[in-house]
Amino acid sequence: MSGARVVGFFLLAVDLALRREFEALAASGFEHVDIEPTRIYRMEDAREFLAAEGIDVDAIAPQVDGKFMSAFIRAVKPALHK
């Protein structure tokens, strides 16, 4: 399987996981669910790691550069009115 295809599957899996997380928070009564990025990763940040895994970094760079991030998921749970 090509590196680009692996990355594509990974991004799809992350997207689905985030959707489930947002749905679970909403189902639990949370509102204003959002993602707060803390760091956007550039291709150079992952070059050594990806190359060690046998992935052609230069071939996938345009597809992944700036598309990975560390982030907080933030949400607000409204106070119950008595």
- How are the strands ordered across the major sheet? 1-2
Number of helical stretches of at least 4 residues? 3
Number of domains: 1
Q: Output the radius of gyration.
A: 17 Å
Form type: elongated
What's the number of extended β-strand segments?
2
Instruction: Let me know the largest β-sheet.
Output: 2 strands, antiparallel
User: What's the end-to-end separation, in Å?
Assistant: 57 Å
Average pLDDT score:
82
Beta-strand content estimate: 15-25%
The low-confidence runs, each spanning 5 or more residues with pLDDT under 50, are none
Which percent range fits the helix content? 40-55%
The class by helix and strand makeup works out as alpha+beta
The ordered string of helix (H) and strand (E) elements is HEHHE
Tell me what the structure shows.
- The protein has 82 residues and is of the alpha+beta class.
- The chain has helices at residues 3-27, 43-52, 57-64; strands at 31-41, 68-76.
- The chain has one domain (3-76).
- The protein has a two-stranded antiparallel ribbon with strand order 1-2.
- The mean pLDDT is 82.
